[in-house]
Amino acid sequence: MMRTTVPPVACVGEPRLTAGFAEFGRLDLLAHEDVHGPIGPMEPVNLLRLAEAIDLKGKGGAGFPFARKLRAVLESCERQDLGAVVVVNATEGEPASWKDKVLLTRAPHLVLDGAALAAYALDAEEIVIGVADDEVGRPSLTEALSERRMPVPTTIVTVPHRFISGEGGALVNGINGLPHIPPGTKKRSSDSGVNNLPTLLSNAETYAQLAVAARLGPYEYAALGTDDEPGTVLLTVSGAAGRPAVVECAAGTPLREILDLCEVPDGPGILMGGYHGKWITSEAAARAEVSRRGLAAVGGTLGAGIVLPISRDTCPLGEVAQVVRYLAGESAGQCGPCKMGLPDLARAVDLAVSGSAPVEIVRAAAGDVKGRGACSHPDGTARFALSAMEVFADDLRLHTTGDGCGKRVKGLMGLPGAPDANPQKLTLDWSRCDGHGLCAHVVPDFIRLDANGYPAFPATPVPTWLREGTLKAVKVCPELALRLASAE
């Protein structure tokens, strides 16, 4: 089921992007100007200096310096004697991310201010805002555009709510009327993007941060945050959190404060940065700071600002396997690492989780896709899977015994739809089995023959992608010794 309700918003310390939310809920133009004050256009050199002074980096996950993007588009326009396009990526295709949707829903004018600043500096021909087809944020954005005059024509483009649709190249393709998937070859939108014009593309929070910095100036902006990462950060906290929320905090804030605010229970691990992010342990989270450098120091990543803790009453490896299967299904199918490598990785994770194969099979499958894809999707998926194998090593040892951890997968990762509503496991009636071995030939990935020629298989639920094969094994058993039974 697609979620369409924006989560609550909280703040640790001084609010900036979320200023005025408590008083006004949604900030219309009058409330926006009352809270944030006036803003005027900036010449290209001044906007570049501002972005460099505050070391503004993209907030969509990759963390690319905004000033370098802006300079590349300026130089490309001059070199090709072409106009520019400003694109706001507010698609937020990852199911667990909500921060950009919160900005569109409650502070749309802050996003539009940032886009307008960039458009003026580039003398752009148009602004295009990409939103997802779940319609979250679009009504508020449409109303905001009706309340003000933008410096150039501004349009809203709807893209499918898919993980890969939020990738920059996929968004440009969609705006150009092409399939909403990343291009098969790497290309720079700063050289040729929307309508083959030099295109400045960044996500909604980045433009909102630019608007805040333009009002405050670099010195006041840097009053919050750390020396090398000034300003605030937006985080989407969900998973096992008792109070899921989008939280604004200064960079450098202890992660523990955010987890306590959102009533996150002690658990085996926390995913930082989203499905292309990395897992960290609860012990690491206790000493981590919310910043790129602070999270990297404990093995995590800030990524798209997604925080997904899990609780001790779910199977962590089962949660991981569901996400890897989802990511494999989100492939654009354009290159070998995505088309064949990611399904192989999902299969390897399932086998390791079921106890049918050692963890080395996951490492090998991840190694086959790393650094070889046409976009970052294979790398991000491999990083997620390998990180889980490290953080949940103790659980993995329980699974390799064939007994598993004894916990059901609760579905805490924010995936569309529900977890397997009817998990099933294979049982064997030893009084009937004569060791024919047919079952192992039908589904060798799950059933193997032991030293005596009798079937051996994990006591864990049968992976969904092996369910059909296992059912066939049950049907071909001459002695009717095999059964599929509820795993409850």
From TrEMBL:
Classification via Pfam families: Complex1_51K (PF01512), Fer4_15 (PF13459), NADH_4Fe-4S (PF10589)
Positions of transmembrane segments: none
Alphabetically ordered keywords of this record: 4Fe-4S, Flavoprotein, FMN, Iron, Iron-sulfur, Metal-binding
GO terms assigned for molecular function: 4 iron, 4 sulfur cluster binding; metal ion binding; NADH dehydrogenase activity
Cofactor(s) demanded: FMN; [4Fe-4S] cluster
Domain NADH-ubiquinone oxidoreductase 51kDa subunit FMN-binding per the UniProt entry, residue ranges: 54-210
Matches recorded under Gene3D superfamilies: 3.10.20.600, 3.30.70.20, NADH-ubiquinone oxidoreductase 51kDa subunit, NADH-ubiquinone oxidoreductase 51kDa subunit, iron-sulphur binding domain
SUPFAM superfamilies: 4Fe-4S ferredoxins, Nqo1 FMN-binding domain-like, Nqo1 middle domain-like, Nqo1C-terminal domain-like
Record-linked InterPro entries: ComplexI_51kDa_subunit (IPR050837), Nuo51_FMN-bd (IPR011538), Nuo51_FMN-bd_sf (IPR037225), Nuop51_4Fe4S-bd (IPR019575), Nuop51_4Fe4S-bd_sf (IPR037207)
Limits of the NADH-ubiquinone oxidoreductase 51kDa subunit iron-sulphur binding domain: 321-398
Gene Ontology biological process terms from the UniProt entry: cellular respiration
Family assignment from sequence similarity: Belongs to the complex I 51 kDa subunit family.
Protein name, entry field: NADH-ubiquinone oxidoreductase-F iron-sulfur binding region domain-containing protein
Organism listed in the record: Micromonospora sp. CCTCC AA 2012012
